[in-house]
Design brief:
The chain has one domain (2-120): Rossmann fold. Helix content is 54%, strand content 13%. The protein has 6 helices and 5 strands, in the order E-H-H-E-H-H-E-H-H-E-E. It has helices at residues 6-14, 19-26, 36-49, 52-62, 72-85, 89-100, and strands at 2-4, 33-35, 66-68, 104-107, 118-120. Helix 1 crosses helix 2 (19-26). It starts with a strand and ends in a 5-residue tail after the last strand.
Length: 125
């Protein structure tokens, strides 16, 4: 199973030079799980940068993967992760979802750097 972090989704939808790295994951619907917090982050960012139409198209595409709603188990695990690793809330929720679903997290977010089951791609300027 694979989770694309919000940073990876945003690069993918923007068609940046990093988009090619993430295409194989973003289009592997059979193995793709989407934490619901990722829907929030991607929708909000695209809404700010572009418009509601573009944000809706992105979310419609993401829904081809399996959406994982926030539940008590994920929330409690994320709280422990946030406390232990000092991760922000959204990153903790994504990481907890990855652990529970035994998914590899693909990201450009340096908060995940060095964590187990994470493929971190460093963003160059």
């Amino acid at each position: 199973m694979i989770i694309l972090d919000s940073s990876a989704w945003l690069e993918y939808f923007a068609g940046t030079k990093y988009a090619d790295i993430f295409t194989v994951f973003a289009e592997d619907f059979d193995n793709l799980i989407i934490p619901s917090i990722t829907i929030y982050e991607v929708y909000k960012k695209i809404l700010i940068q572009r418009d509601v139409y573009s944000a809706n198209i992105a979310i419609d595409f993401m829904q081809n993967g399996k959406i994982i709603d926030l539940n008590t188990e994920i929330a409690k695990n994320a709280a422990h992760i946030s406390y232990k690793l000092k991760l922000p809330m959204a990153d903790s929720l994504i990481y907890a979802t990855g652990q529970i679903y035994q998914a590899r997290i693909i990201t450009l977010d340096s908060d995940f750097k060095g964590l187990d089951n994470v493929d971190y791609y460093e963003k160059s300027i």
